[in-house]
From TrEMBL:
Coiled coil residues, start to end: 112-146
Keywords: Coiled coil, DNA-binding, Transcription, Transcription regulation
Taxonomic classification: Bacteria, Pseudomonadati, Ignavibacteriota, Ignavibacteria, Ignavibacteriales
InterPro entries found in the cross-reference section: cNMP-bd_CS (IPR018488), cNMP-bd_dom (IPR000595), cNMP-bd_dom_sf (IPR018490), Env_Response_Regulators (IPR050397), HTH_CRP (IPR012318), RmlC-like_jellyroll (IPR014710), WH-like_DNA-bd_sf (IPR036388), WH_DNA-bd_sf (IPR036390)
Residues of the Cyclic nucleotide-binding domain: 12-132
Occurrences of domain HTH crp-type (ranges): 146-219
Descriptive protein name: Crp/Fnr family transcriptional regulator
GO molecular function: DNA binding; DNA-binding transcription factor activity
SMART domains for the chain: cNMP, HTH_CRP
GO cellular-component term (any): cytosol
Pfam families noted in UniProt: cNMP_binding, HTH_Crp_2
Length: 226
């Protein structure tokens, strides 16, 4: 792969010149994380930005009663760890690989210098943070107001946006997290997830193929549950 080319697909770096991308790649480091391996922990100090080259990770927090609450699932070309870099505070969440993942790591001082030198990176970062905040607001409202079916549908729509692949109006969700992880995203039980997914399948809204799910008519699904 050409030096710096993989960074071109990361939204906050997409407008940088090739020589800058090459410089970032040389200064950063790649690391492989195995499935279920913790990449960073909530409350530890933050010294780096992480970019996903391949694989998937879950971002989670622990509730007061000790339960895991999954905030999001991130995949190829997504990034995480930016909050602790920007404010110097401890990590706000734990990030764990949910499949074997290759991560590119940029140290804090290098990323801060990049923000100072390239204002378009800072602007793109603000836009992405705003998008994530709006998405979180929508999810919080949906999960607090909707019934079990609506909560599961909300999570499927979130996964469709983050890891889905659109093919002729259908959205393919490949290698989904285990049902317990989906339950932790929806704030419900694994049994409810299983029951609701099979209900959606009976209605012809989704097709289940092992660890993969296909939303048959994505626009219709959004109209029903968005």
């Amino acid at each position: 792969m050409e030096a710096g080319s993989f960074l071109r697909y990361v939204p906050i770096f997409s407008n940088l010149p090739d020589d800058t991308l090459k410089s970032i790649e040389i200064s950063g480091a790649r690391k492989i994380y195995s499935r279920n391996e913790v990449i960073l922990k909530e409350d530890e100090s933050g010294t780096a930005l992480f970019i996903i080259l391949s694989g998937k990770v879950k971002v989670s927090r622990t509730s007061e009663d000790g339960k895991e609450v999954i905030l999001s699932i991130l995949s190829e070309n997504d990034f995480f760890g930016e909050m602790a870099i920007l404010d110097g505070q401890a990590r706000s969440a734990t990030v764990t690989a949910i499949e074997d993942s290759e991560i590119f790591i940029i140290q804090r001082n290098e990323f801060i210098e990049l923000l100072k030198e390239h204002h378009d990176v800072a602007l793109a970062l603000l836009e992405e943070l705003t998008r994530r905040l709006r998405s979180a607001d929508v999810k919080i409202k949906a999960l607090s107001l909707k019934d079990a079916e609506g909560k599961v549908a909300t999570v499927l729509l979130e996964l469709a946006e983050s890891i889905g692949k659109i093919k002729q109006g259908k959205v393919e969700l490949e290698k989904l997290p285990v049902q317990q992880d989906i339950a932790n995203m929806a704030g419900t039980s694994r049994e409810t997830i299983s029951r609701t997914l099979h209900s959606f399948a009976k209605k012809g809204l989704i097709e289940i193929d092992g660890p993969n799910i296909r939303i048959v008519d994505y626009e219709k699904f959004k109209e029903l549950y968005g």
